[in-house]
Amino acid sequence: MPWPAVELRKIAETDDLRIAPFREDGTTYGTLAWIWSVVVDDALYVRAYNGQASHWYQAAVRQKAGRITAAGMTREVAFEQAEGSLDDRIDDAYRTKYRGSRYLDPMISTRARTTTIRIDLRA
Questions:
Q1: Residues 59 and 48: beta-carbon distance below 8 Å
Q2: For residue 33, what is the domain's CATH number?
Q3: Structural domain boundaries, residue 91
Q4: pTM to 2 decimal places
Q5: pLDDT for 26-36, tens place per residue?
Q6: Cβ atoms 121, 75 nearer than 8 A
């Protein structure tokens, strides 16, 4: 389900996204983890700083759903692995939003690129 433009803009402008994929039971939310997020082509993307070993990433890939909180909102969401063809544009969005951070290089590394997740609203 597409994001309302006003919500997506608010998320894009903030640095407070927290993600909680479902646990193995498919109904209990995991612990909220703070992560960086970017918006490209009216879609929301996140990456795992620690690569594929990241617990939240593994749960998101397995469960494909959960919850996020950002910009004062809590939303039920679906997770989908992003197409690799967008990696360069997502890298550019990270460079723009997080310019000057010492964590930027790891977030645009091959290790993190392999964990790019698109977050969509759940109906």
A1: no
A2: 2.30.110.10
A3: 5-121
A4: 0.96
A5: 999 999 999 99
A6: yes
Rounded to whole angstroms, the Cα distance separating 3 from 121 reads 6
Write the CB contacts of 67 (distance below 8 Å, at least 6 apart in sequence). Answer: 19, 20, 29, 74, 75, 76, 77
d(CA 81, CA 64): 9
Number of structural domains in the chain: 1
Q: What count of Cα atoms within 13 Å lies in the side-chain half-sphere of residue 17?
A: 25
Residues 100-110 have pLDDT tens digits of 999 999 999 99
DSSP for 22-71, please give it: B-TTSSSB---EE--EEEETTEEEE--TTGGG-HHHHHHHHH-EEEEEET
